[in-house]
Design brief:
five-stranded parallel β-sheet; 10 helices
Length: 228
């Protein structure tokens, strides 16, 4: 009987912990140290660039198309720790995620404001850097042979998913030169080359565009593009 009651108590405690969906900054900070955790910033790109949590991914919750496209690249079976500026957007985003199959979503009470007040550190505070010019880009792609442009960002979930695919592609195809365009900074260049989403891949042969794809691309598709 004693063992039964103890097991019931432990089970209830575990269930309560699992149901705890909103935590303070100190608890949140400890939580994101666990292996396999996904940290998700649902503020705007501009807010993100003023400082964010370590290793965070980003999607603007107020831009429904962007949010819905990027959130699909998160793993629904692994915990997601979500935050915004003060808690409103992250609460709405977390509710949507739970309703759409995410098994464990934890919100930061008070958002970044509470995080700062607790003395927790931010990373990625962007110093304004010059954008890549169209002339610089044109010079990079105007060469004999193959050039692959990768328009992406480290905080973009599908871009993050593409990293190992690109690494393998480049290892297997050493004749291809990679040109990276910063999707969080080189906005004028993105307009010039008509890159409307992240990631966007553009393949050039002898300076001429021969193939383009927006979104996640399989290694097989990248390799087949070289046959053009």
């Amino acid at each position: 009987m004693y063992r039964f009651l103890l097991a019931l108590l432990l089970s209830s405690s575990t269930l309560l912990a699992q149901q705890q969906t909103s935590v303070d900054a100190v608890t949140f900070a400890k939580g994101i140290q666990q292996p396999g955790i996904q940290v998700f910033d649902v503020r705007t790109a501009g807010e993100f660039n003023t400082g964010h949590l370590p290793d965070a991914l980003q999607a603007d919750y107020t831009k429904k198309t962007e949010f819905n496209e990027r959130v699909q690249y998160l793993n629904k079976t692994k915990p997601v720790y979500v935050y915004c500026l003060s808690g409103g957007r992250s609460s709405a985003a977390a509710r949507w995620m739970r309703e759409n199959g995410f098994q464990q979503v934890v919100e930061l009470e008070g958002g970044i404001n509470a995080w700062k007040q607790a003395g927790e550190p931010l990373t990625g505070v962007s110093e304004k850097k010059p954008q890549m010019s169209v002339a610089t880009y044109e010079k990079a792609i105007q060469q004999k042979g193959w050039v692959l442009t990768d328009v992406g960002a480290t905080w973009c979930p599908p871009c993050r998913q593409m990293e190992p695919v690109l690494e393998k592609f480049l290892r297997e195809n050493k004749q291809v030169t990679l040109v990276k365009v910063d999707g969080g900074n080189d906005v004028e260049l993105m307009k010039a080359i008509d890159a409307k989403g992240l990631p966007t891949f553009i393949l050039y042969k002898d300076g001429k565009e021969v193939w383009r794809k927006q979104g996640v691309v399989e290694l097989r598709v990248l390799t087949e593009a070289l046959q053009r």
